[in-house]
Amino acid sequence: MDSLALGADLEPDPVVDEHSTVTLFVNGEETTLTVDHRATVLETLRERFGLTGAKKGCDHGQCGACTVLVDGRRVNSCLLLAVAQDGAVITTVEGLAEGESLHPVQQAFVERDALQCGFCTPGQICSAVGMLREAADGHPSHVTAPDTAAGRPDAATGPVALDADEIRERMSGNLCRCGAYPRIVEAIEDVIE
What we know:
Layout: E1 19-26, E2 29-36, H1 41-48, E3 67-70, E4 73-76, E5 89-91, H2 104-112, H3 121-136, H4 164-170, H5 181-192
Parallel strand pairs: 1-5
Antiparallel strand pairs: 1-2, 3-4, 3-5
């Protein structure tokens, strides 16, 4: 017989509020803080650091509005638990500029007017910065010609050439509801040249 039929006591287990201390290097600043084990990097950046560039769009890692760089790689910060990032170097859109000088990708977005409402722009910019590094390191995308993909014994080594198709494919994880895609691609092309 199952326990329901026997009238077993069905008290739920108590909720345990777990926290840990982590050290994060956010935009060049080392910070040690205590985080809830359930807190995402996105929530931590916005609520604990006051960095509101990365946005909560879908909260499922599908829109890219929350994209930041973690240890130089672009990630959806809504999917990463902050507690698992102890010691990580995190760069947000706010940390790309050097003083009053915008990062080249930021500058290109301004010059090309590669935005409309601006909601997705911080994620688009961080993703573009990470994507440029991935291509420079020779990481292929779905549209990269097989004979140029790094890691293949018969492949050419070195960076992957970025044309409009490569840029669109590599940026496809970042959605823009306003449809600023043509200008985003142009801005990224400007940085490559």
